Amino acid sequence: MKPLKDLRIAILLCFTLGLAPFYPEPHVWGKLKWVFGGAHGMEIKDWFDLLMHAFPFLLLVRIIALKLLNTAS
């Protein structure tokens, strides 16, 4: 199975890269709060960091959507 279509790999990536570092809060959660708070002071490196930590979750949503679309047809 291809890695970008494997649900198990996407879940593993979400729990590792997506949420790391875990303390005091998941990194992606802190970045999302910053964006929803107006993103004041965010630089290009912060946007890139958000993209890197959000990628596993976007991949997971994509895989689930493809699986749902395949079962619907």
Model description:
- The chain is mostly helical.
- It has one domain (3-72).
- 70% of the residues lie in helices and 0% in strands.
- The chain is built from 3 helices and no strands.
- It has helices at 7-18, 27-36, 44-72.
- α1 packs antiparallel against α3 (44-72) and α2 packs across α3.
- The longest helix is centred in the last third of the chain and has 29 residues, at 44-72.
- The radius of gyration is 14 Å and the shape is elongated.
- The chain starts with 6 loop residues before the first helix and ends with a helix.
- The chain crosses the membrane at residues 48-69.
- This is RND transporter.
- Keywords: Membrane, Transmembrane, Transmembrane helix.
Brief characterization of the structure:
This protein has helices at residues 7-18, 27-36, 44-72. It has 73 residues and is mainly α.
Key features of this structure:
73 residues; mainly alpha; 70% helix
Topology diagram in text:
Layout: H1 7-18, H2 27-36, H3 44-72
Transmembrane segments: 48-69
Keywords: Membrane, Transmembrane, Transmembrane helix
Organism: Algibacter pectinivorans
